């Protein structure tokens, strides 16, 4: 683990409030958690925390609460606590934001980067209360930002984000949504591999039933 990131996690774990990066660095150096010969350790600490937030988005260990001020992402860490009942909830979707106003998104786009970062997943565009478009993206923010100026730009007013870090499952999820909801803005219903089609098995059962009825 990166030494600055590890030190920040340890310091913030023992704090009930957000701390300025200079205070995080000061405590880490004082306790001997962080050792560095650099001339600007606080700047290095800040850069490492910001990078973690931008890369991991909602899955980051940190939450930015103000200029150079951070707290621990308790919601993420709570997911790691053992449960009395085994569950897979949260194993696929690691974060979400639902039906956020387009104008607010456009205005706060740079700040959205602090929340979602470069996360991958599925997004949904709405016009009023109706689902208009569903998409899959390696970078959710970049893709939705593109829809502010492409052919869909005047056809949506709200957006939802679903962060899915296991991107290999996203295409199937997108296809399921397309085939169920049939959004107006999508030009395709999505496709599954032909060998997963179960209709052939059902047809075989029907033929067997017809043969059985004839024999009765």
List the defining traits of the structure above.
9 helices; 216 residues; 4-stranded antiparallel β-sheet; Arc Repressor Mutant, subunit A; GIY-YIG endonuclease; 2 domains; 3-stranded antiparallel β-sheet; alpha+beta; 7 strands
Question: What are the SSEs and their pairings?
Answer:
Elements: H1 3-13, E1 19-20, H2 21-30, H3 41-56, E2 62-66, E3 69-72, H4 74-78, E4 93-101, H5 102-107, H6 109-115, E5 121-127, E6 130-137, H7 140-146, E7 158-164, H8 170-181, H9 199-215
Antiparallel strand pairs: 1-3, 2-3, 4-7, 5-6, 5-7
What's the CATH architecture name of the largest domain?
3-Layer(aba) Sandwich
Label the structural class: alpha+beta
Q: Whole-number average pLDDT? A: 85
Distance between the termini: 72 Å
Global geometry: elongated
Kindly state the percentage of residues in helix: 40-55%
Tell me the strand percentage band: 15-25%
| Total count of helical runs of at least 4 residues | 9
Q: What is the CATH third-level topology name of the largest domain?
A: GIY-YIG endonuclease
- CATH H-level homologous superfamily name of the largest domain: GIY-YIG endonuclease
Provide the domain count.
2
Q: Report on the biggest sheet.
A: 4 strands, antiparallel
* Widest β-sheet, arrangement of strands: 4-7-5-6
Record field, number of beta strands: 7
CATH C-level label of the largest domain: Alpha Beta
Which stretches of 5+ consecutive residues score pLDDT under 50? none
Radius of gyration: 24 Å
> What pattern of helices and strands is seen along the backbone?
HEHHEEHEHHEEHEHH
């Amino acid at each position: 683990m990166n030494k600055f990131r590890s030190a920040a996690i340890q310091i913030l774990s023992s704090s009930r409030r957000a701390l300025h990066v200079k205070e995080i660095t000061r405590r880490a150096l004082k306790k001997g958690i962080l050792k560095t010969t650099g001339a600007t350790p606080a700047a290095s600490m800040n850069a490492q925390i910001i990078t973690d937030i931008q890369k991991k988005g909602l899955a980051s260990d940190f939450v930015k609460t103000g200029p150079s001020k951070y707290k621990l992402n308790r919601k993420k860490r709570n997911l790691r606590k053992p449960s009395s009942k085994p569950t897979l909830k949260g194993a696929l979707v690691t974060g979400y934001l639902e039906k956020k106003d387009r104008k607010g998104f456009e205005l706060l786009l740079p700040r959205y980067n602090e929340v979602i970062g470069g996360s991958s997943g599925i997004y949904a565009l709405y016009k009023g209360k109706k689902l208009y478009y569903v998409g899959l993206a390696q970078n959710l923010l970049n893709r939705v930002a593109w829809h502010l100026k492409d052919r869909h730009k005047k056809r949506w007013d709200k957006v939802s984000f679903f962060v899915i870090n296991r991107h290999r499952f996203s295409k199937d999820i997108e296809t399921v949504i397309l085939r169920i909801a049939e959004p107006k803005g999508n030009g395709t219903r999505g496709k599954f591999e032909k060998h997963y089609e179960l209709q052939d098995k059902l047809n075989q059962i029907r033929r067997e039933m017809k043969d059985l009825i004839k024999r009765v």
